[in-house]
Amino acid sequence: MVITFIRLCQWLCLILLMLLKTECSDDVEMTFIHSAVAKGAVCLDGSPPAYQFDQGFGEGVDKWLIHIQGGGWCESTKSCLLRVNKSNGVGSSTLMQKFNFTGVFSSKQEFNPGFYNWNRVIMRYCDGASFTGDVEKVDPATNLHYRGARIFNVILDELLAKGLNTASSALLTGCSSGGLAVILYCDKFRAKLPATSQVKCVPDAGYFVHVKDISGKYHFEKFFTKIVKLHNSEINLPSSCTSKMKPGLCFYPEFILPTIKTPVFVINSAYDSYQVQNILAPEKADSHDSWSACKLNISNCSPTQLKRLQDFRSDFIKTLKSGMGRSVSNSTSRGMFINSCYSHCQTGNQINWLGDPASKLDNKAIAEVVSDWFYERNTTQLIDRRHKLPQQC
Ligand SMILES: *[C@@H]1O[C@H](CO)[C@@H](O)[C@H](O)[C@H]1NC(C)=O
Ligand SMILES: *[C@@H]1O[C@H](CO)[C@@H](O)[C@H](O)[C@H]1NC(C)=O
Ligand SMILES: *[C@@H]1O[C@H](CO)[C@@H](O)[C@H](O)[C@H]1NC(C)=O
Ligand SMILES: *[C@@H]1O[C@H](CO)[C@@H](O)[C@H](O)[C@H]1NC(C)=O
Ligand SMILES: *[C@@H]1O[C@H](CO)[C@@H](O)[C@H](O)[C@H]1NC(C)=O
After folding, report:
1. What is the pLDDT of residues 253-289, one digit of tens each?
2. 216 lies in a domain?
3. Would you name the residues annotated as active-site residues?
4. CATH classification at residue 202
5. What does the DSSP assignment read for 224-256?
6. Are strands 30-32 and 264-269 parallel, antiparallel or unpaired?
7. CA of 82, closest atom in ligand 1
8. Single pTM value for the model
9. Ligand 1 centre from 179 Cα, in Å?
10. Which residues form the signal peptide (predicted)?
11. Which residue's CA lies nearest to atom 2 of ligand 4?
């Protein structure tokens, strides 16, 4: 009797554990590409590149969603050295922690209806230049490696060998500096896949605009220029752009997007918090430090600041439309979801991806609109015209 009872308990525990395990099934291991070190395809500190891969299933076995992780940039030896020690691993794979696969990465249909059963990959970011750098020389004093482009190629080659080379559908996504990488690499990625596969690109919070800051200058352009110089990114930027303008400007999507042939869907907030904090009101442009409270929490913004934010929104939309060019009339090749959340990156965040009413447009979540666009089911160019001010999402 007692033994039966214990047995029963053991069974119950086992079932519970199995249930818990399914619950945690979005725990995806890191893969380090040790063989890449010999090819010099390494993180800033020389450590091997890494990615996380969750295998597709069912009808998704031959579909691939490749996401390029974001995490700012480093524009000087000093800031790249600091980056190497950042605990989130954006300069070294030795410090990387696993990302949880939520939002667009989730393997659960109810959380990610369009892509849950696809092969889902996160390319981990550790180079500091949106995967564009390629400098052969390593400074012995710092041991810094500027090799982001090699990392992109090495991870992509590994995925191609794992089945991406015969994908029926593929989506290149990325957030922030990874979203910028999506724009920069979109056509190259397309070219690696069979002509018969359906390939599209979705930059999330990667549409950084070239507009004047609160001091009337372009401080952020200087930052972009320094990144491109330090990492020798020019050789990996589209020559259609670098032949026409300074390489630093070719980090701005508005000058690249018009030349991209592959379909692109831009997800961005018109009040993107990173852009407000670093492009509109960077510290260097705010000599009286009058914006820090407002940047920290938009409910602290003065009426003048709110007006300036609205002007930024107008500039953002104007710039976006110029980047979309003539193809803006063709929602198959160019889609967009531009809401008003005071936030940055929305696809990997379960709430923004599918849930929060404040991040929806026309009562549709980002997840629905991106799927509709990928499968060419509906009009997919949405800009929030209802909210005149930034929203907390
Ligand atoms: C980074 O960490 C290493 C090891 O802890 C240390 O030796 C080095 O001085 C640190 N570098 C910076 C720039 O903080
Ligand atoms: C991932 O999820 C676990 C469990 O829900 C949580 O404890 C952890 O902080 C999450 N990690 C990240 C990086 O969000
Ligand atoms: C911003 O401030 C408001 C009002 O003080 C507060 O309710 C809200 O929680 C704050 N938001 C954040 C993100 O801290
Ligand atoms: C719209 O773009 C798609 C994909 O680039 C293309 O196949 C189609 O011909 C375009 N349609 C029009 C009306 O230009
Ligand atoms: C397209 O979107 C409209 C407006 O949101 C909706 O009413 C309609 O049902 C959608 N059509 C399809 C085929 O999903």
Report:
1. 999 999 999 999 999 999 999 999 999 999 999 999 9
2. yes
3. 176, 272, 344
4. 3.40.50.1820
5. HHHHHHHTTGGGGS-HHHHTTS-GGGGGSHHHH
6. unpaired
7. 13
8. 0.90
9. 29
10. 1-24
11. 333
